[in-house]
Amino acid sequence: VITMDSEDRVIADGAVLVRGNRIAAIGDRGSLETANPGAELRRLKNRLLMPGLVNAHCHSGILRGTAEGLPVWDWLRMFIDPMHRVLNPREAEVASWLCYAEAVLSG
User: Hey, is 23 helix, strand or coil?
Assistant: First the structure.
């Protein structure tokens, strides 16, 4: 667990205790398990958990599924640029709302 606290602590065998939708405690796994015997345990083997980071960078989903297998510049030239030329204001608004809704759903 990378705590992202003021000391930039890294806890090799760390755990995060969540109550509801809030982080209640961060510490070494053994101590948290002992102090919270009824807590549900999810092991994230070979993973890194970094609480506190929020991805606020969003794109509309209007062209979702069109880029698979293409280099980014080909995708931009073949799909994004032509779509931007024909996209009307209502379609752009709907795509934006979809993007914002997905951001809210993902936390």
Answer: strand
Beta carbons within 8 Å of 83's beta carbon, 6+ residues apart: 62, 63
Whole-model pTM above 0.70?
A: no
pLDDT higher than threshold 80 for residue 70: yes
The rounded distance, in Å, linking the Cα atoms of 66 and 59 is: 14
Sequence letter at residue 75: W
Q: Is the pLDDT of residue 48 over 80?
A: no
Do 49 and 1 touch, CB atoms closer than 8 A?
A: yes
Q: What is the DSSP letter of 79?
A: I
So where are the chain's domains?
Answer: 1-52, 54-107
Handedness of CA 26, 30, 31, 36 (dihedral sign): positive
Q: How many residues does the chain have?
A: 107
Q: What is the mean pLDDT of the chain?
A: 84
SS3 of residue 18 by DSSP: strand
Half-sphere exposure of 105 (CA within 13 A, CB side): 6
